[in-house]
Write a structure and sequence with these properties.
alpha+beta, single chain, 19 helices, 871 residues, five-stranded antiparallel sheet
């Protein structure tokens, strides 16, 4: 007669073999059938390998429990694949062959085995008989070899003390005398608190006196021995009542590093004559716990022992979030993979007291109250008992045991499970707080590093990349960033990243086909189901095409990619708004693969990161806009085009100092004034920034306007001087070289120049001599009344006129400066060079003069009259 069953399906991938082995091992150990676990795991491994590797199909594994045996069935979906057995008996083709090895093992290890076929499935099964045990006994787990047992320095001592209602010691056994050194006469009648080394157990607020009044409690504290040394102990307190009704507390104490010995040795379960049910002392199940920092081990062991204690088919333990509104799945046994860690369910699942995780509840048949326990929906479980875990009145979790049959549990089982939950609650909460503290320390380090990285760039694309790279794979398996240009724009998919680079393109294609999440400004993460639904539909369409059931052309290429993408996106997906300056500027989307969920601490960390990332992204946007505006304005200050002057070569090189600057305080211009007459200017505005740029624009436009009105050089500069002074406090003084150029019919050029406080232009003759081409005059923007004059310069064929700003002559290397002498020396060697070559050689000399980059703007204007060409 079958008394229990457990089933699971495994995908046709290599890692499924190990997962199947773990499933069978956990199932049989949970049933107490550890004696046959090893044989069952070996046989399952071989049969599942045949299914998922050789047959290439999913494997269905079914475990069946009966009173004297266990049966495991492994089915695949490729019945055409033959069984490698000769027609006569069970003779195998070859002992050395890989084919048929699983069936050879079945024949050797199993009590019975066989193969069954259906039109769509092939099933191989084996049965293992259980060894005979005395009636009413079962193994609680695998036996350890003697060499692996812990070593004790001496006989383990368990001190027993009984404390009366007033807190005084009334019983003190021989082990207590040995451990602490006090005889019974020395301690009886004295309060236990007199011997306690510290009044509160570490990490909680419960003192010794309060613990003695609790119905049950366990924890660590210290006892002072007769030699004055403090002996850390692990204690278990149980409140009892004697035959006269007087309350007292029995204390079991061991040295703190021997806490595991408080587990009661295995005993035959007690038979309840009224119900003929076996009961197990909860002390046997729950006293003693893993190391304080091993939260996962503690939780997993708790659910396994809770299931065994109530002889259930499944068990689960959920921990409450900080606000006690949701419970997070942290450990399960006997439930399908979709109920794995970090899935969340509400604390209040209904309106009655039985719908709240804050109260113990027994559900006799879940089919009559669907949704009463959301975690068990679609699992086949019919009856369930759930109890809260509470510490100092606060809900910290929920423990449940479920069965596939209805009416399995009564209030008696609920009380026993609650008793066990009370025993473990404090240890669970202590371990949870320790884990939370470690996570928060790691979160702080993560956020500090993230803030540094985000603050280190003002580039929008780089900020988007950093946001994704910081979340994958630390917080999520994949990430997508949506951005919103303005309130009238729809969210745009800007960046996609997956921990597996080969899946990025498929993920991007999938997300591009679905509507983006709504830009809701509400803080916190919200679940977004669209990607998982789209992935499921894509996988379904691909599978139908693969089977020839879909319409349209075959899609054999890309099937694996589509299915892999669907698996990668099939888990939980959450969206966090990117809010900066009270505006939603985008969304950060994080995803997990199939059946995975985000834990609450990760979501809180992601929310903190999203706030920092949003501000960094908005700063990058503002900076980009500002740079674009600045560059547009700067370009408007540069001459639109350089005119072609007949008979004269002209070359201009301009370098603005500062990152992102196209225009600085230096400027130049070259423009036509009238037929055959051209104006040129090169100047330097004092200072930098917008104020200097404003004077640059004023000077360039004023020069063009006044020159074309027919004013000569001195008049042009005098009026520009007045305009600069009219700016008042915003004015800047200006050095300016201005001139008019007239090409001559004989091949030369006539120049009229005014040098107002600017570095003097240099004239290079064909014989290599260099001389200033003008005299210095007062600069502009300082005094009202200027008396300027213009000078005439004639350039003969082959002559060069070099005009520069002080960024060239004042180029420095330590205390050295290029100066007029250095510039003259450079120009002397430029005889016979074109205007472009002269300008390039001057720039190269300036750059090579010092190793550091230039800190001042530079403008170089070269005009040359070429020699006549001889035919």
């Amino acid at each position: 007669m079958i008394t229990a069953r457990a089933a699971a399906t495994f995908d046709p991938v290599g890692r499924s073999v190990a997962t199947a082995r773990a499933f069978v091992r956990d199932t049989l150990q949970g049933w107490g059938y550890s004696e046959v676990v090893d044989d069952a795991v070996v046989l399952t491994s071989e049969l599942v390998t045949n299914a998922v590797i050789h047959a290439g199909t999913a494997a269905d594994v079914l475990c069946l429990r009966s009173a004297d045996s266990v049966r495991v069935e492994v089915g695949d979906r490729y019945p055409e694949r033959g069984v490698p057995i000769q027609a006569t008996g069970h003779t195998f083709a070859s002992l050395d062959s890989e084919n048929g090895r699983g069936l050879m093992l079945c024949s050797a290890l199993a009590s019975r085995w066989g193969v069954e076929y259906t039109p769509t499935h092939k099933q191989v099964w084996f049965q293992l008989d259980l060894p005979q045990h005395p009636v009413g006994t079962r193994s609680a787990g695998p036996a350890l070899p003697t060499a692996m047992l812990p070593v004790a320095d001496e006989r383990v001592r368990v001190a027993v003390a009984q404390i009366d209602a007033a807190g005084a010691i009334s019983v003190w056994n021989a082990d207590a005398e040995h451990v602490f050194g006090y005889t019974a006469d020395q301690v009886i009648g004295k309060p236990l608190a007199d011997f306690a080394a510290w009044p509160h157990t570490p990490g909680i607020g419960t003192g010794i006196a309060e613990a003695l009044r609790l119905s049950r409690w366990e924890g660590s504290y210290g006892i002072r021995g007769t030699d004055g040394r403090v002996i850390p102990v692990y204690a278990s307190h149980l409140r009892v009542r004697d035959s006269h009704g007087e309350p007292s507390t029995v204390c079991l104490l061991v040295r703190d590093d021997e806490r595991a010995v408080l587990q009661t040795p295995h005993r035959v379960p007690v038979t309840d004559s009224a119900t003929d049910k076996h009961t197990t002392d909860p002390f046997e199940v729950f006293i003693g716990s893993p190391a304080p920092d091993d939260l996962d081990g503690l939780l997993q062991r708790t659910v396994e022992r809770a299931r065994d204690m109530l002889d259930g088919d499944a068990a689960f333990l959920l921990l409450a979030t900080d606000d006690e509104t949701e419970l997070e799945v942290r450990a399960t046994t006997g439930l399908p993979s979709a109920r794995q860690r970090f899935a969340r369910v509400p604390v209040e699942a209904g309106t009655s007291r039985y719908g709240s995780a804050r109260m113990p509840a027994v559900h006799e048949d879940l089919t009559s109250v669907p949704g009463a326990v959301p975690l068990l929906n679609s699992t086949g479980m019919r009856s369930v008992v759930t109890v809260p875990l509470k510490v100092e009145g606060r809900l910290t979790g929920s423990l449940g045991v479920a069965a596939e049959s209805a009416g399995r549990y009564t209030n008696e089982e609920a009380l026993r499970l609650q008793f066990a939950a009370d025993r473990i609650a404090l240890a669970v909460e202590s371990a949870r707080l320790g884990e939370l503290e470690r996570l928060r320390r790691g979160s702080l380090s993560f956020l500090v590093e993230a803030s540094d990285l985000l603050a280190g760039t003002l580039d929008r694309d780089q900020t988007l990349a950093l946001m994704a790279q910081m979340t994958v794979p630390t917080l999520a398996t994949w990430c997508a960033v949506y951005t919103i240009a303005d309130q009238a724009s729809d969210p745009y998919l800007s960046y996609v990243l997956h921990e597996d680079e080969e899946r990025i393109d498929g993920l991007k294609a999938l997300l591009s086909k679905i509507a983006p999440p709504d830009p809701v400004p509400a803080p916190g993460a919200r679940v977004w189901t669209a990607p998982a639904a789209a992935a499921q539909q894509a996988a379904l369409r691909t599978s139908r095409h693969e089977l020839g059931l879909g319409s349209g052309p075959p899609v054999s290429s890309g099937i694996d990619t589509t299915l892999a993408t669907a698996a990668a996106v099939g888990g939980e997906t959450v969206v966090l708004p990117l809010v900066a300056r009270n505006r939603v500027i985008g969304m950060l989307t994080l995803g997990k693969p199939s059946d995975d969920h985000f834990r609450q601490e990760i979501l809180e960390l992601a929310e903190d990161l999203s706030r920092r990332a949003a501000l960094a992204l908005d700063n990058a946007r503002l900076y980009s806009e500002r740079v674009a505006i600045s560059q547009s304005l700067q370009r408007s200050l540069l001459p639109p085009e350089q005119p072609t002057i007949p008979g004269v070569e002209v070359e201009v090189i301009y370098r603005a100092a500062g990152e992102g600057n196209e225009v600085g305080g230096d400027f130049y211009d070259l423009f036509p004034i009238s037929d055959g007459v051209y104006g040129f200017a090169i100047g330097d505005v004092c200072g930098t920034g917008p104020e200097a740029a404003a004077v640059t624009g004023l000077a360039r436009h004023a020069l063009r306007l006044l020159a074309r009105e027919g004013f000569g050089g001195p008049a042009v500069l005098e009026r520009l001087n007045a305009a600069i002074l009219d700016e008042g406090a915003r004015s800047r003084f200006l050095t300016l070289l201005y001139g008019e150029l007239r090409p001559q019919e004989n091949g030369g050029a006539l120049l009229k120049v005014v040098c107002a406080g600017h570095p003097l232009p240099l004239r290079l003759r064909q014989d290599g001599t260099v001389e200033p081409a003008a005299d210095p005059q007062p600069l502009l923007g300082v005094m009202d009344d200027l008396e300027l004059f213009e000078q005439t310069v004639t350039l003969d064929p082959g002559d060069v006129l070099l005009c520069v700003t002080d960024g060239v002559t004042e180029r420095r290397e330590g205390t050295r400066m290029l100066g007029d002498e250095g510039l003259t020396e450079v120009l002397t060697g430029c005889t016979g060079l074109t205007a472009g070559a002269v300008a390039a050689r001057v720039l190269r000399a300036v750059e090579r003069f010092a190793a550091e980059p230039a800190s001042d703007d530079m403008a170089i204007l070269v005009m040359r009259v070429p020699e006549p060409q001889h035919g």
